C-alpha cells in the first residue's frame, strides 16, 4: 500500500488508517476503516486502492477485484491500483492481466523512484502474506 493519495473528504481518517497500516495494525480493523472511507468518498481512487490491497492481503480476491477495478477506473495512471488489479485478476482467473502488467513495467522503467516504491510495496505484501503465489508471479513478470 503506497502513501500517495488524492485530497479527499475525510483525509484525516485516511491518513490515520494509513499510518496505522504502516505501524502494523491488525488488517481486519483497517479493512473496516477503508470500507468507511470509500463510502464517505466513493470517487476518490486512493481509498479504493488501499481497500483492494487490504482485501488481497486478507484473501478476499472477489472483493479486491471489484475495489481494484473501481480504483483503476477512477485513476487509470495509478500503478499501485494496476498492481492490485493484476493480483486480483490472477487470483480470480480473470483475463487481461498482461495489459496492466505491461503498463506498470513501462511506468517503472521511466521512474526509478516509482519502481523502488512499488518494489517496497510488493515486499510488504509478501511479508504480510508469505508465499503469496500471485505476488510471486507478478514480481517475476515485473523484474
Helix count from the secondary structure assignment:
8
**Helix content estimate:** over 70%
Category from helices, strands and their pairing: mainly alpha
**pLDDT averaged over residues:** 93
List the uncertain runs.
Answer: 3-8
- Total tally of structural domains: 1
Second-tier CATH architecture: Alpha Horseshoe
SSE topology sketch:
Layout: H1 11-22, H2 27-40, H3 45-57, H4 61-74, H5 79-92, H6 97-110, H7 112-128, H8 133-142
Helix pairs in contact: 1-2, 2-3, 3-4, 3-5, 4-5, 5-6, 6-7
Please sum up the structure shown.
By secondary structure, the chain is mainly alpha-helical. The chain contains eight helices and no strands.
Explain this structure to me?
- The chain is mainly alpha-helical and 143 residues long.
- Helices cover 76% and strands 0% of the residues.
- The chain has eight helices and no strands.
- Helix 2 packs antiparallel against helix 3, helix 4 runs antiparallel to helix 5 (79-92) and helix 5 (79-92) packs antiparallel against helix 6 (97-110).
- The protein is globular.
- The protein starts with 10 loop residues before the first helix and ends with a helix.
Amino acid at each position: 500500500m503506497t502513501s500517495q493519495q488524492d485530497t479527499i473528504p475525510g483525509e484525516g481518517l485516511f491518513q490515520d488508517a494509513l499510518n496505522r497500516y504502516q505501524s502494523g495494525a491488525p488488517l481486519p480493523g483497517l479493512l473496516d476503516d477503508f470500507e468507511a472511507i470509500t463510502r464517505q468518498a466513493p470517487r476518490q481512487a486512493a481509498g479504493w486502492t488501499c481497500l483492494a490491497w487490504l482485501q488481497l492481503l486478507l484473501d478476499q480476491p472477489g472483493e479486491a477485484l471489484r475495489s481494484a477495478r473501481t480504483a483503476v477506473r477512477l485513476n487509470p495512471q495509478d500503478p499501485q491500483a494496476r498492481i492490485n488489479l493484476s493480483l486480483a485478476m490472477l487470483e480470480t482467473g480473470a483475463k487481461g492481466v498482461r495489459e496492466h502488467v505491461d503498463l506498470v513495467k513501462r511506468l517503472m522503467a521511466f521512474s526509478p523512484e516509482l519502481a523502488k516504491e512499488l518494489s517496497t510495496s510488493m515486499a510488504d505484501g509478501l511479508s504480510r502474506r508469505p508465499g503469496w503465489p500471485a505476488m510471486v508471479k507478478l514480481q517475476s513478470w515485473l523484474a
